[in-house]
């Protein structure tokens, strides 16, 4: 059912003129008439109140609130807003907290702790580095241990050793924080910097009869998919083929990779050369 304050100006005016018609068997409600003028003024006032109510209703819910009220929702839940966050990123953090609250040290808790930008970050020359991806593995280094494999927000710092190993500093800060908040009785969590595994993709795509395929769009979409993969996440050939089909290809044949790619926890896939050609 449509909420009353969702009415637009024309609908409100029409309702008012209908009410005038009910007071007189043959009223003049044409444009320029006194009932029309008075009705327009009243409709304008009511429409303004409806818009105000509509705005207030949106601010009641975190996923429809504006930037200012989104931060108020987060402040109530004690979720810090960092200047490096976008509103969409901050909303994701709030929704994650609401949908999956802390459960005393389960896998998701450790992932959230590793991705906590307020506590797991390192600043070098006023540049903020934080963990963008985290993969949590139970019993990674023995019974009762937790292994956390991370990827930094800026992947160019991976393996950098001069003038300061930023990657190592970020890993250390994350590990110290997580071991401060982890449940008692659990052995220490170890934060490990995952390393990239470059993967090339070569694909032949087929268009429908008389049509064409946007090979550039397919290439960009595949690159985006590979560059968003997390440590330990396997790459499936079917995923790459589905991307091509979603961009209009009638069929797609992969020549690289030739099999699904299994990835160990300490590695993560990133794009190398991507070649998409149309048959």
Task: Give structural notes.
This protein is of the alpha/beta class and 279 residues long. It folds into three domains: 4-59, no CATH class; 102-193; 196-278, no CATH class. 39% of the residues lie in helices and 21% in strands. It contains eight helices and seven strands; from the N terminus they run αααααβββαββααββ. The strands form two sheets. It has a four-stranded mixed β-sheet. β1 (121-124) and β2 form a beta hairpin. The model has no long low-confidence stretch (mean pLDDT 90).
Keywords summarizing the entry:
single chain, 279 residues, alpha/beta, 3 domains, four-stranded mixed sheet, 8 helices, 7 strands, flat
In short, what is this structure?
The protein is an alpha/beta fold.
Topology:
Layout: H1 9-23, H2 34-59, H3 67-76, H4 87-99, H5 107-114, E1 121-124, E2 127-138, E3 146-152, H6 166-181, E4 189-193, E5 195-206, H7 215-226, H8 237-246, E6 251-256, E7 267-278
Parallel strand pairs: 3-4, 5-7
Antiparallel strand pairs: 1-2, 2-3, 5-6
Shape: flat
Strand order of the largest sheet: 1-2-3-4
Number of domains: 3
**Total number of beta strands:** 7
Figure out the total of helices.
8
Oligomer: single chain
Q: How much helicity do the residues have?
A: 25-40%
| Unreliable sequence segments | none
Describe the main β-sheet briefly: 4 strands, mixed
- Taken in chain order, the helices and strands follow as HHHHHEEEHEEHHEE
